[in-house]
Each structure stands twice: as structure tokens, then as C-alpha cells.
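PROTEIN DESIGN WORKSHEET
SECTION A - STRUCTURE
LENGTH: 85
C-ALPHA CELLS:
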């Protein structure tokens, strides 16, 4: 019986380390692009919300202007006749 000493695991080869570093760098780049996209989308949503709020105020104002004394219901086509009839 010979007692062989356990052999230590060899250190990772340089190509494997380089591949891991390359992979990590690519993941960091993708994360950076994702952060940039998220910021851009947040800005877009904020602008759209401002536009929606502006349009809601405008519709409300138009309803108040056109709705004073007139019902917002169905119009009678006879009201639309030209004056010579």
C-alpha cells in the first residue's frame, strides 16, 4: 500500500479567468444599457402623464365652455339647418 498525498487542485488557467472577466464585463455593459433604458422610459412615462393631465384639463375646459346652457346629449339636426330654410 502506498499512501499518495492528495494533489492540490491546480489554479484556474489564465484563459478561463480571461473568459470570466470578459463575461463579467459584458454583463456590466448590459446592466448599464438596461439602466439607461429604464431612465429613458421613466422620462417618457412622465412626459406622457403631463400630456394626459393637460388634455384632461383642456377637455374639462371645453365642456364648461360648450356645455353652459346646452345639454351635452344628442343634437337635433333641425338646429343645423342653414338660415335660408
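SECTION B - SEQUENCE
RESIDUE ASSIGNMENT:
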Amino acid at each position: 500500500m502506498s499512501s499518495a498525498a492528495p494533489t492540490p487542485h491546480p489554479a484556474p488557467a489564465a484563459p478561463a479567468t480571461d473568459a470570466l472577466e470578459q463575461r463579467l464585463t459584458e454583463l456590466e455593459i448590459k446592466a448599464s444599457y438596461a439602466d439607461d433604458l429604464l431612465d429613458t422610459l421613466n422620462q417618457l412615462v412622465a412626459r406622457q402623464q403631463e400630456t394626459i393631465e393637460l388634455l384632461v384639463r383642456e377637455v374639462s375646459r371645453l365642456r364648461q365652455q360648450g356645455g353652459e346652457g346646452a345639454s351635452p346629449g344628442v343634437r337635433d339636426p333641425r338646429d343645423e339647418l342653414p338660415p335660408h330654410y
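SECTION C - NOTES
Residues 26 and 35 are 14 Å apart (CA to CA).
The chain has a mean pLDDT of 83.
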